[in-house]
Amino acid sequence: MKIIIFGLGNFGSSLALKLTESGNEVIGVDLKMEKVNLLKDKIAHTICLDATNELAYDSLPLKDTHIAVVAIGEHEGAAIITTAILKEKFSAKIISRSLSPVHDTVLKAMGIEHIIHPEQEAAANLTGKINLRNVLDNFNLDDEYSISEVKVNDSFQDKSLQDLDFRKQYNLNVVTIIRPCNKKNFLGNQLKKKEVIGLPANDTKIKKDDLLIVFGRNEDIATFGDAMTN
């Protein structure tokens, strides 16, 4: 996909790099040239412009863009104005970062459906990781159930899910398996990536360094995570 990110601060630049690594064509936009220069050789294209200036949008390929992300985190007013201009000029999906409850209210009044809170979401994610010991990543569905990413130990290598009797032994469902691999991005750079193998069957065998994406109760995920350190 082609994605434009407005605001190349810590969050915006990290997002731009991650999206590029996963094969997307990313255009980064920022008012400060030093931020633009930091990413100019790392993503598809960078542009230095004032996103609060409506006339500046004539230089952006909005018609060919699938998603616009407003990641501005320093100036709430600039973020709101940028979102308002995009709402008028851009017909595809807009994702906007919110910096406060008032900002939330304004974005909802504009009709923005995709509102993100990176700091709050990162804190919630970290809380899940701390509470569920030895879990690499975690998504809480509610207070009782989660989908979590757990790295298996060497004892699982070359064994199938059926061999492990996984559902009975751990009271968890394996949603999918993420496997490390090396691939080239569209710029030709060699990248270490994670490949999702799809819905695993009973005869699917676990390989070294595999990550299991499991669904179940938090207490069962924590127990399984602890078992993987033994």
Automatic annotation (TrEMBL):
Transmembrane segments: none annotated. InterPro entries: NAD(P)-bd_dom_sf, RCK_C, RCK_C_sf, RCK_N, Trk_Ktr_HKT_K-transport. GO terms for molecular function: monoatomic cation transmembrane transporter activity. GO terms for biological process: potassium ion transport. Residues 1-116 form the RCK N-terminal domain. Residues 133-230 form the RCK C-terminal domain. This is K+ transport system, NAD-binding component.
